[in-house]
Amino acid sequence: ASRKKIALIGAGQIGGTLALLAGQKELGDVVLVDIMEGVAKGKALDLQETRGVTKFDVNVTGGGTGDYAIIKDADVCIVTAGVPRKPGMSRDDLLKVNLDAIAKVAEGIKHHAPNAFVIVITNPLDSMVYAMYKITGFPKNRVVGMAGVLDTARFQYFVGEAAGVSPQDVNAMVLGGHGDDMVPLLRYSSVNGVPLTKLVEKAKLDAIVDRTRKGGGEIVALLGTGSAFYAPAASAIAMAESYLKDKKRVLPCSAYLDGQYGVKGVFVGVPVVIGAGGVERVLEVDLNEEERAMLTKSLESVKKSVAETKL
Ligand code: APR
């Protein structure tokens, strides 16, 4: 087809925001699928009704999980199906219930959109993306998890605020699992080449790293119900856009490792190149002893979570 197609599985807070952003950017026609059929259909119709004023010429349609055929031949599937955290919960607390959702979604995608690039957002991220990979049987370059882009976006904002500069000009890199032991690589971060430490004092930077690690929980506590959705949606859209337009952006994503960083057979956050070939390359950076130790610790929790999927 001359127009791309983006399937959003899960039409909740993130799914709805994804639909709006994908529409506004005219990335392609958008299809929303949710077990709550009315929610998917209602949000789709509401978005269609913006088109006269927003001027975007893509279609937004919706349906229930009984209508998986509507995702037929989607180019990209972005998966948020599942439940979000409640205050006091960790991402890992979601494993059982969300694994069930991911298993069903993976079957639907495998059957109806066998050539899609799949971006998983559902938490606990690193094990849900692993489950998606196992159940679809898709090649490793076509399944990826959204985490690092969000974590770095949060870091960029906090540094920008502290340094009095635009978050756009903050370059950051993060490795590891999407959890409270993610590994921010400060040595590889800068304000457009200017070392972070020139603009923000060390103690403040340490506080920013800590706030970034707990960034998801901070939003959960403020919202009272549900978890963050604007920044997660914007982050996944950056990944989808890089794929659809073959931009080859370097983005930190949860990707399948096949020996890189000394890790094999799990998905974990690393810098990757996303282009028309999906996850085209995993970029390896040198780690010092401290960073290596943080990555090892982060990997332990990822592996534990993956083992719980029994896949
Ligand atoms: N198939 C399709 N949709 C499903 C399924 C399923 N099997 N199970 C649940 N859903 C739908 C819900 O009906 C709901 O509309 O997924 C949607 C999730 O939306 P929200 O509850 O609003 O959650 P959201 O904030 O969008 O977050 C979704 O992303 O960040 C993660 O931790 C978060 O795992 C959570 C996910």
UniProtKB/TrEMBL annotation:
Belongs to the LDH/MDH superfamily. MDH type 3 family. Substrate binds at residues 85, 91, 123, 154. GO terms for biological process: lactate metabolic process; tricarboxylic acid cycle. The keyword Glycosyltransferase does not apply. Keywords: NAD, Oxidoreductase, Tricarboxylic acid cycle. It catalyses: (S)-malate + NAD(+) = oxaloacetate + NADH + H(+). Residues 5-145 form the Lactate/malate dehydrogenase N-terminal domain. One of its GO terms (molecular function) is L-malate dehydrogenase (NAD+) activity. This is Malate dehydrogenase. NAD(+) binds at residues 10-15, 34, 98, 121-123. Its EC number is 1.1.1.37. The active site is at 178 (proton acceptor). It comes from the Bacteria. It comes from Anaeromyxobacter diazotrophicus. The gene is mdh_2.
